[in-house]
Amino acid sequence: MERYVDGDARAFDALYAALEPAMRASLRRWMRTDDRIDDAFQAAILKIHASRDRYTRGAPVLPWAITIARNVAVDMLRKSNRETSLEPEAAEALPAPVETWSQADEDEVVNAVRAAVDTLPPSLREVVRLHKIEGKSMAEIATQLGIKEGAARVRAHRGYKSLVAQLGAFWARRA
Fold this sequence. Notes:
- The chain has nine helices and no strands.
- It has 175 residues and is mainly α.
- It has two domains: 2-83, Orthogonal Bundle (Rna Polymerase Sigma Factor, Chain: A); 88-174, Winged helix-like DNA-binding domain superfamily/Winged helix DNA-binding domain (Arc Repressor Mutant, subunit A, Orthogonal Bundle).
- Helix 6 (103-118) packs across helix 9 (149-174).
């Protein structure tokens, strides 16, 4: 990588050959199809080329390249999810717009959310409460709980994931 950063054009071929198998294997976990893997791999190689001046000399190249490839894959997946519209059957399964709810509907939803939050383990429940009910940032939550911000984010993610599963069942029963 150092030779490539220094401008040795032949070093690119060696770098490409060394990184390609591992990057493609890593991308396969997220992208699944060969054409999407090819697109993501090429985009990742372009990003590596564009950011080669930020590479820390002496640092392992493969983890850096895999991270770039992963970020490219995540961006591509997010973009494809935004571009995918709901199928008519899926749209029919969505709950009615909030404007059409009765007070009984709202009460039922509020009670379901409270019950789902109450089932969370205390460490997850506290992060969800502080973030969604009190509106605190993850940095503020981490400080208040005496944990790292990354740990607060992990707890929030796990809590939200559990709530999605529980409330998904609620919406399915309600439909």
